[in-house]
Amino acid sequence: MPNSKMTNGSFQTSIAGVDGQVLTVKYKVQGKPDEEKQLIVTPKTIIATTVPGTKEDLRPGLKVFVAAAPKLPDGSLDVAAIQVEKEIPPPQ
């Protein structure tokens, strides 16, 4: 979504706040000390997770996300994992 953010980190604490649930996430920044961010989870916040799937889950027209897929000499990609749209598009 426009103006949205994605943060990968280690979940530290959770407290109920006035505007929603406040989560504290600790994450690493290369060459710097660990940093923490507080995230407010509102009723509009999308919570996504991944679950195992099969090749049948890959269908034309669905959005997918592939990370770290080296290109092979024939131009194809060597893909270890694919996230595919189910109810929402995968994180970008």
Describe it for me?
There is one protein chain. The N and C termini lie close together (10 Å). The strands form 2 sheets. Strands 1-2-3 form a 3-stranded antiparallel sheet, with no helix packed on it. 0% of the residues lie in helices and 27% in strands. It is extended and about 50 Å long. A hairpin with a 4-residue loop joins β1 and β2. It is mostly beta strands and 92 residues long.
Layout of SSEs?
Blueprint lengths: L9 E7 L4 E7 L7 E7 L22 E2 L17 E2 L8
Antiparallel strand pairs: 1-2, 2-3, 4-5
Percentage of residues in helical conformation? under 10%
By secondary-structure content and strand pairing, the structural class works out as mainly beta
The tally of beta strands, per DSSP, is 5
Mean pLDDT: 81
Descriptive keywords:
92 residues; mainly beta; two-stranded antiparallel ribbon
Give a nutshell description of this structure.
The model has no long low-confidence stretch (mean pLDDT 81). This protein has strands at residues 10-16, 21-27, 35-41, 64-65, 83-84.
